[in-house]
Amino acid sequence: MSSISSDHDQQPLPKRTRKTRAVVVCARCKAVKTKCDLQRPCGNCVKAKVGHKCSYGEEEPTTSTAESASPPSANAPITPITPILSTSDANKVASRLAILESRFTKLEEWIAGHALSHEYSSNSTPSVQLDKVTKWRLLLSNLPSQNIARRLMKRYFLADTLFRYSHEPSMMNHFEKYYPTNGKIVSLEHAAFFASISMAMMIGTHIAQHAESDNAILCTMKSPSKRHPETQYYHLLASLLNAQRTLHDPLSSAAVEWSEMGKVFHIGILLGYHRDPSEMEAHISPFWTEMRRRLWWQLRTGEQILAQRLHLPDVLPKASVRKPSLIPDKELSQSALYTGWASEWSFVECKISQVELISQINLIRSTSQTSIDGVALFQINQIVSQFDTVVPLHLRFEVVTSARASNTFEPDLDQPPWVLAQACTVHIGVSGAILAAYQPFWSLPTDIPGNAALISDAFERSVAASQRLIISSELFVWHTTIRWPEGRALFSWNMGMRIFLAGMTLALSAIQNGPTHHAWKTNMNYLTSAIGLMQALVNQRPRLNDGSRNDGSADQKGLGILRQLYRCATSAESANQNDDLPATFSDECDPYTYFKIPSPTHQQEIQGLTANSPAALSEGEIRRNFTLDDLETLLNEIYGSVNV
Predict the structure, then answer these.
(1) Measuring CA to CA, how many Å separate 353 from each of 360, 363, 391, 494?
(2) Which CDD domains does the protein's record reference (predicted)?
């Protein structure tokens, strides 16, 4: 018994183990003794900005020193090394592991990115450029074929007719030049242009889906094979009538009308109605030429009315379309035999343009009165050369010369009667303006070097203008007397002065050149015509109250002078004639202005007049000494200052 009890006493007592508790707070919350929300990281650590240091370290089991020092006995029961965790503990461990792996992954990405940026900063241009080129080629490869893109671009430009955001010719030139076809390499610098055409093609796609019919009509009219003036005219007319229908709508407003008319305006511009048919490459018959002009001016008038109502500026471009003719509809025929009549408006516009040129000449003369030199002559020559450019085709001088060349003095049969009278009136005015422009150069002193050349040039141009004036005046008088008496309304009040100036110029040229000169006979023929015209003017003068003629009129005196000059030029014995050149006409009145010509009243004025005037010359002296100064003085004495 004792032995058993002794053995029992000798057995070691079972070891007392201490249970480990689950961690309920993080290390920082445990240290500062605050309540932890057990988040990973917890809220307290996040607020303290030490979330990366938030940890939940497990407590190690505490054992006695003896137990730790003494090795376990051989008979001690074997316990598992891996602790047995509950389900909640396992979830916490897995969550912790996932957080650590996420942080590790982010750390790797940050390190890799930092290393790459450091590498690119040293030498990154080739790789970046290669990436851009690759993307650029990929974008170009996604573009549609050139035919599809071209069709979409055309549809876009039709829609852009109203707004005019783009310029079709230049944009299509770039399109044909740079669009990638057959492996064409396109530089990256054209990216902005391809972005523009991509947006345009998107708009063209939208238009193709929603407005196919309208654009099909415009495409048809723009195609070279369908550019018939009738089709274009009626399409534009239909658009205009649709806009006019809006005007009659009581619910419509001026803004709506402006929008509708804007579409019509730009359709007209798209079809080229802002250009005169005579300037177009395609030949258009006179009938459709007139109809196009009518429709354009209707559009322009409507635009001006709406712009005034809305207080807006004029938006239509400056057009070169002539105004339509004042022709009744019953006389405007679509027949192939119809050739069209001249426009009444062209005559008025031509006269306005000539007045502008004459104003420029008068400005040069007023600024050059003290010094008439070669510069002034050059400027006047430049302006004179523009007179014929402002004359329309049906009023050109060739119309006058061709009618004069015929024996019957008849114009073309397809022309109305007023065309020839208008043409004559135009060139009478042009010739008179040229004569008045060069007259100041006749009085230049010949003793100054260089003046002789100026006088010769001005006088030669004056002789040519005089011949032109006589031709136009002769045909005008005949035409208004025989064929169109109503044309006398175009008769100018200073016709006599113009004919007298032209006749004096031709007579002076014949006297200076002599009968041996090649142009002497031509000038004498024109001088004979001038005398006949002056006689016609004298005969047409209104009679005085008592029925007698005013034989002392300026035209009558001018007629006498021209006859004396004719005799001086044709006969060397003209100096023996009994008729003397009138010495003074101070008691006469100007038949056009009815102002009395002033006469000298005292000796000083008489001396001044006789010192500068060759009025007292006899016919013999005229033949021997007649100069340009004499011509100008005689003209001023009879008609006063020349204002053609």
Answers:
(1) 11, 16, 9, 20
(2) fungal_TF_MHR (cd12148), GAL4 (cd00067)
